[in-house]
Design a protein that fits this description.
Blueprint lengths: L1 H64 L6 H44 L4 H48 L3 H38 L13
């Protein structure tokens, strides 16, 4: 009985050590998978932002190019779309902040692994890879900030158009803002190109640091 009990205790201790060891060694790739998922979710938010911008510009151009006898319903559609665009842009900004923090967490976990390595050539090799990944993060973070910086003035510009139409919702008022709407459309085309490139870069960066093959996330509805 004593031998059996000793065996059970020993087995339990061994399992505990294995679980602890596995948890310790899995920290790095758990952090990388979390960072990868945050990059993927950021890409989905950027895609949602792009779609919201399309809908907003579409509703505005519909109002300008094909005004109905009663202009109020079309104006309300544009106004609601613009509100949703603002909400989507804010959500994308918050997602970007979380993404950056997850990237930092992953790099810090990597640094911990580097400190515990025994052989210099293994450490140097891993340090080289860490530098590459860190640069990838820096690039997507910078582009994320640039996209947000470009989107905010466009939203403000569209908001001013809404104010102008709210004060002068007439066919003459629509004619007066036509050149302004054209300018907004041209700026939106540039922003859309930046958002498309950013979403692609985010998904690619996420796939490069994930331990599993990531599927492209669907944009939030």
């Amino acid at each position: 009985m004593k031998t059996k009990l000793t065996s059970i205790v020993s087995t339990s201790l061994l399992l505990t050590l294995l679980i602890t060891s596995t948890a310790c060694h899995s920290t790095g790739y758990n952090k990388s998978d979390t960072a990868a998922l945050s990059l993927q979710m950021a890409a989905a938010e950027v895609q949602a932002e792009s779609r919201a911008l399309d809908v907003t510009l579409g509703s505005l151009k519909e109002l300008i190019a094909k005004p109905a006898p009663d202009l109020k319903p079309q104006f309300r559609t544009f106004s609601a779309s613009l509100d949703r665009l603002g909400d989507t842009a804010n959500r994308a900004q918050h997602t970007g902040v979380r993404m950056q923090q997850k990237n930092v967490d992953y790099l810090q976990a990597w640094d911990k692994e580097l400190q515990d390595m025994n052989f210099e050539h293994v450490r140097k090799n891993s340090e080289t890879r860490r530098t590459e990944v860190s640069k990838q993060f820096e690039t997507v973070n910078a582009r994320y900030q640039e996209a947000g910086t470009a989107m905010q003035p466009l939203i403000l510009y569209l908001t001013d158009i809404r104010r102008a139409l709210s004060a002068d919702l007439t066919h003459e008022g629509l004619e007066a803002v036509k050149p302004i709407v054209q300018n907004a459309d041209e700026n939106a085309t540039k922003v859309q190109a930046a958002l498309a490139k950013l979403a692609s870069d985010l998904n690619l960066s996420g796939s490069r640091i994930s331990s599993v093959a990531l599927q492209t996330a669907e944009p939030p509805q």
